[in-house]
Design a protein that fits this description.
Elements lengths: L7 E4 L5 H9 L3 E4 L10 H11 L2 E4 L2 H14 L6 E3 L8 H14 L2 H4 L3 E3 L6
Parallel strand pairs: 1-2, 1-3, 3-4, 4-5
């Protein structure tokens, strides 16, 4: 089922602002930690903020956010979704955006809610 419109993303401070610019040029609704004045926040604070905003958190910090998502699930806490992906150089932004587009074609924001998705698993 294809999602209507672009997924709303929140990029934590592990993700380069240049990726946010790239995504915005492609029509994505993106909010960065810098724009939200969340620099220096803990991982939990980033996830709480993204959840309050109804935004899916995109991070390169896979290990810590996977553990945080597991802790939240054990506590019965909800979030808008977490997308984990490997840190990529600027030269690979096109491929990363392609994978996000693929994800969006497969799942809606509601289907991503309370899930953790490894973007590296979304292949062409």
């Amino acid at each position: 089922m294809a999602a209507e419109g672009k997924l709303r993303l929140y990029l934590d401070e592990c993700v380069s602002p240049s990726l946010a610019e790239w995504l915005c040029r492609q029509g994505w609704d993106v909010l960065t930690a810098h724009e939200a004045q969340m620099l220096g926040a803990t991982d939990e604070e980033h996830l709480e903020f993204a959840s309050r905003q109804g935004r899916i958190l995109l991070t390169f910090n896979a290990k810590d956010f996977k553990q945080l998502a597991e802790a939240w699930a054990a506590q019965g806490r909800e979030h808008a979704g977490i997308i984990l992906c490997p840190a990529v150089p600027k030269s690979a932004y096109g491929q990363l955006v392609h994978r996000l587009e693929k994800l969006q074609s497969l799942l809606s924001a509601e289907q991503i809610r309370n899930t953790v998705i490894w973007l590296g698993a979304i292949w062409d």
